């Protein structure tokens, strides 16, 4: 079967200047990423901030053009789909329901806006469409005429979800959908996302540094480091055992008190490398507890097998670490 979403060899390079009198240099925010997801799946895209996961999300939404590589939905290249059609098929849910909702508009207006912008369906049906999706998202009818400031954080996130889903997209890109919320509310929102997925047959790309959240709902996990996917596996297999030393370290950091805050633990150290000046060899080697001499000079090959993908010399039979 054709995956509902497929990326092949995506690159996204920015020209950046580090100081006013410095020449511009290329920063490879996304440095050769391939991934695919089946309809109804949940792809968890994880990694520290700066790893390129948000840039991948922006490309999937058509907000950022790849420097090279291809993106396809149901086998159709993104550039052939066109903005309006793309907005109908792929919608984002962002992390901060406080700043993403216009405080001067009513909830009804906020959720209707995407239908208006993309002139979807009959105007006469908008009210019903909005009320239907509000109901599915667990929002009371009276919220229609209320303002964001009158709602709790959890309800505001439900509004943000309703606004994304009123378009009835097939794919939803959730960028840290719960990290701005209290822990007790996080679980409710995750359960809502799962219920909606079943009810509406959605496919999710879940971008998060919170591995507990990813473990709960992802069917497939891809770990990103400095613009590349360094490990990919089915969710269960990944959480049972990680292959890449970076994945291992990420999982270990979940068990520290900073869990979920994206704060690296002792094992990872605090030195996230400068992406404009990546280390030679394996870009993870300065932080890797398993690094050997070869890691400092030679980049590991991408190994694909029955379990998924891993990019580390430890799994290359031809290399001794
Ligand atoms: Fe660590 Fe070497 Fe594997 Fe890179 S290639 S992750 S440095 S063991
Ligand atoms: Mg980000």
TrEMBL record:
<keyword id="KW-0813">Transport</keyword>
<dbReference type="InterPro" id="IPR003593">
    <property type="entry name" value="AAA+_ATPase"/>
</dbReference>
<dbReference type="Pfam" id="PF08352">
    <property type="entry name" value="oligo_HPY"/>
</dbReference>
<dbReference type="InterPro" id="IPR050319">
    <property type="entry name" value="ABC_transp_ATP-bind"/>
</dbReference>
<protein>
    <submittedName>
        <fullName>Peptide/nickel transport system ATP-binding protein</fullName>
    </submittedName>
</protein>
<dbReference type="InterPro" id="IPR017871">
    <property type="entry name" value="ABC_transporter-like_CS"/>
</dbReference>
<feature type="domain" description="ABC transporter">
    <location>
        <begin position="5"/>
        <end position="251"/>
    </location>
</feature>
<comment type="similarity">
    <text>Belongs to the ABC transporter superfamily.</text>
</comment>
<dbReference type="Pfam" id="PF00005">
    <property type="entry name" value="ABC_tran"/>
</dbReference>
<dbReference type="InterPro" id="IPR027417">
    <property type="entry name" value="P-loop_NTPase"/>
</dbReference>
<dbReference type="GO" id="GO:0055085">
    <property type="term" value="P:transmembrane transport"/>
</dbReference>
<keyword id="KW-0067">ATP-binding</keyword>
<dbReference type="GO" id="GO:0016887">
    <property type="term" value="F:ATP hydrolysis activity"/>
</dbReference>
<keyword id="KW-0547">Nucleotide-binding</keyword>
<dbReference type="InterPro" id="IPR003439">
    <property type="entry name" value="ABC_transporter-like_ATP-bd"/>
</dbReference>
<dbReference type="GO" id="GO:0005524">
    <property type="term" value="F:ATP binding"/>
</dbReference>
<dbReference type="InterPro" id="IPR013563">
    <property type="entry name" value="Oligopep_ABC_C"/>
</dbReference>
<dbReference type="GO" id="GO:0005886">
    <property type="term" value="C:plasma membrane"/>
</dbReference>
<dbReference type="GO" id="GO:0015833">
    <property type="term" value="P:peptide transport"/>
</dbReference>
């Amino acid at each position: 079967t054709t995956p509902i979403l497929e990326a092949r060899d995506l690159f996204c390079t920015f020209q950046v200047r580090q100081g006013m009198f410095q020449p511009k240099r290329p920063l490879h925010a996304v440095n050769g990423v391939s991934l695919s997801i089946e309809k109804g799946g949940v792809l968890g895209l994880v990694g520290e901030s700066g790893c390129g996961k948000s840039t991948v999300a922006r490309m999937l939404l058509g907000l950022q053009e790849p420097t090279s590589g291809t993106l396809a939905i149901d086998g159709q290249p993104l550039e052939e789909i066109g903005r309006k059609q793309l907005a109908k098929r792929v919608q984002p849910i962002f992390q901060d329901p406080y700043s993403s909702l216009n405080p001067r508009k009513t909830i009804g207006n906020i959720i209707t806006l995407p239908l208006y912008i993309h002139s979807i369906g009959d105007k006469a049906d908008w009210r019903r469409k909005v009320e239907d999706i509000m109901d599915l998202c667990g929002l009371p009818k009276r919220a229609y005429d209320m303002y964001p400031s009158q709602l709790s954080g959890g309800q505001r996130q439900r509004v943000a979800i309703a606004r994304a889903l009123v378009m009835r997209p097939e794919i939803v890109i959730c960028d840290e959908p719960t990290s701005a919320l209290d822990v007790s509310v996080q679980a409710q929102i995750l359960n809502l996302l799962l219920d909606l997925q079943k009810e509406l047959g959605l496919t999710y790309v879940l971008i998060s540094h919170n591995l507990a959240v990813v473990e709960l709902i992802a069917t497939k996990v891809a770990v990103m480091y400095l613009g590349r996917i360094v490990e990919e596996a089915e969710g269960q297999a990944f959480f049972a055992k990680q292959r890449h030393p970076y994945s291992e370290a990420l999982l270990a950091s979940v068990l520290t008190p900073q869990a979920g805050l994206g704060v690296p633990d002792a094992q990872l150290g605090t030195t996230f490398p400068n992406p404009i000046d990546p280390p030679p060899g394996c870009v993870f080697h300065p932080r890797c507890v398993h690094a050997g001499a070869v890691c400092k000079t030679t980049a590991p090959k991408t190994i694909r097998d029955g379990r998924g993908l891993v990019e580390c010399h430890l799994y290359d039979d031809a290399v001794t670490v």
